[in-house]
Design goal:
Blueprint (H helix, E strand, L loop, with lengths): L1 H49 L8 H10 L8
């Protein structure tokens, strides 16, 4: 009789262990997906800020590029 109770206890503990494993897997998956979404948002934001011509980001850079690339003579 004691052996049957021991086996029943092991089966019960095994079920609880599997349930905890499933819960922890769900939590870990949610954390991973949250981290991936946050990283993707950060990369997309940085990409949008840095993409495009340099003159679109800075007034000083626009003036410098305009002065450096004059292909014409100004009218006097």
């Amino acid at each position: 009789m004691i052996i049957f109770e021991a086996i029943d206890t092991l089966i019960s503990l095994g079920r609880w262990m599997v349930a905890w494993l499933v819960v922890l897997a769900v939590v870990a998956t949610m954390c991973l997906l949250t981290a991936l979404a946050t990283g993707a948002y950060a990369v997309r934001t940085i990409w949008r800020v840095t993409s495009g011509p340099s003159w679109a980001r800075s007034r000083r850079e626009a003036r410098r590029l305009a002065r450096a690339s004059r292909d014409y003579d100004e009218a006097a």
